Here is the input.
Amino acid sequence: MRTEPDMKLIVNVSKEWAIGKGNELLFHFSKDMKFFKDHTTGNVIVMGRKTLDSLPGGRALPNRTNIVLTKNAGFERSGVTVCHSADELKDVLKGYDSDSVYVIGGESIYKLLLPYCDTAYVTKTDAPAPDGADAFMTDLDSDTDWEILECSEEFTEKGLSFKFLTYKRKTS
Here is the structure.
């Protein structure tokens, strides 16, 4: 990947940093979906194949450059650029402004690319992970390389509270 962290990631997590169950998001808030759309529209989004499959109709999101990182050598999908390795992704991303690249999941993609991210936009939902949650994000609150830069007011939808947090990687 890049030598310096300069990508961003965007994610919605539970109290325990769970992000999914059965290839579905844990929480669906209109304000969070707008936040995601506002940040990623016109930019590059990097995701795994299962994340693409979980999108409406399994189709690329409009008005974004969709890049899918998958080990499946035969994978193809309309409207996406497919990369089969981190090195191939690195080469593809050279053609884009790093400030416009957002990692959108899932679990293995977040873990692979977190070292190359300098900003994380986290919608933190004040709710425990439901039973059976099977995908998790690295807990940035416990990671000494990260700090909270901004925290929004608290919002409530569907009886659940959440905040928008911006984490920045600490510079040494």
